[in-house]
Every structure is written in structure tokens, then in C-alpha cells.
Amino acid sequence: MLERHWYLKRCDLFQQLSPEQLAAIESRSRMRECPRGTPIYLPADDANGVLLLTKGRVKIGSLTAEGKQTILAFIEPGEVFGELALMGSEEREEYAEAVEKSTVILIPNEVMQQLLSEHPTVSLGITKLFGLRRQRVERRLKYLLFRSNRDRLIHLLLELTEQYGLQTSQGVELRIKLSHQDLASIVGSTRETVTVVLGDLQKEGRLQLGRRKIILTDLAKLADSVSMPVPQLREA
Fold it and tell me: Mind listing the domains of the chain with CATH numbers?
């Protein structure tokens, strides 16, 4: 129980809550271990609560009628997901899958609804979460509709830089391991096309490739090529 309490305290949404309030949430929540590659929930599953990721990494995605996968977001430790359950939806609309061995805490809807009504900081945090994720998806959709495969991929790499970029002596390394198929699923392309575009960018000296490793060697030129500002790196 104490371990779960510590995980809840690490979440930005709950940092202003008292130990008693955290203990009340903890007593009604459930912790679950998820091996790599296993679904946490699927479309049409009961939307019975919000989930907090405490360890690992989770991807959120959707499936077309033909079974084609689109990755919408990646969730990092300390973040909540499945928040659409708070909007009254009885079923999940997307799927969530553990990219790495992960641990999640399910907080029931009734517990979260009570928190939202009693604590303005939690309500504001959820509202900001909605807004930020919607903004990212809408921005990506704009590029999916109106840009070439090359521009879409560059835009994605720059977007990932904002969240996962780490300055090294070689350039900015993306601290998230994505396959070419993962990248294709995010930008609405094919694995073969992504491989070709990445190879071209490497020949041009814009990036270096390793095994599921990408180092951007010229952020300014990449950003200029798609008329984007140079992304700001997070502090380590």
C-alpha cells in the first residue's frame, strides 16, 4: 500500500492532495503488472476508470475496420490515461498497450469524479491534459492531410524531440525506441516508405540511425524544411 501511495504522490495531478486523501484513493484503486506487448484495454472494453502509469511505457492507438493500427500517443510514468472515461463514455474508444513491462494503477470513475468536484487543481489538471493531447493530435492530423511522407516524418521527429530529446556530443538523441513500423503507424505511412525517407535524411547528414535509435544532427535545418520553430529540449 505504501508503494502505491508513493506512486500516486508522484503524479502531478495528485501532488496537492493530503496523505489522507491519497490514502482514500489508494484504498479504492487497483495495481496491475503488464508484460511488454500486452493490451491494457481494448476498444469496447468497459470505461470503468482512469489509469496511472507508474513504470514502463504505454502506447495509445486506434484500429481501422481493416485492422490497420494508428498510434496516437505514448504515455510515460507519472501520467494518467484513459481519461475519456470521465466524459461519460461507457466503452473505451481506443486501445492501450504496454510497450515495455509496465505497472498501472486503475482509479475508478467514481473516485475521480469525486476528486474533480472537490479539488479544483485536479479538475484543472485533467482539463489541461485533454487540451494538450487534443492539440498534439490535431497538429499531427494537419500534417497527415496536407504534407508529403517526408514532411510528416520530419514533423514527427521534431515533435518527439520536445518530449524525448537529449543533447549529446553527436546531436539530439531521441530517448524512445521506435521501430520503422511504429513511426509509420504514427504518420499514416508504410514501413518501407519510412525506411527510405530515414535513409535519405541520413545521407543528407540530418540524422544518424542505429538499432531503434535516432540522433538528429541538424535540428535547425530539419525544422526549417517543414516551416517549424526549432523545438525546445526538456531539462534533464
Answer: 2-142 (2.60.120.10), 148-225 (1.10.10.10)
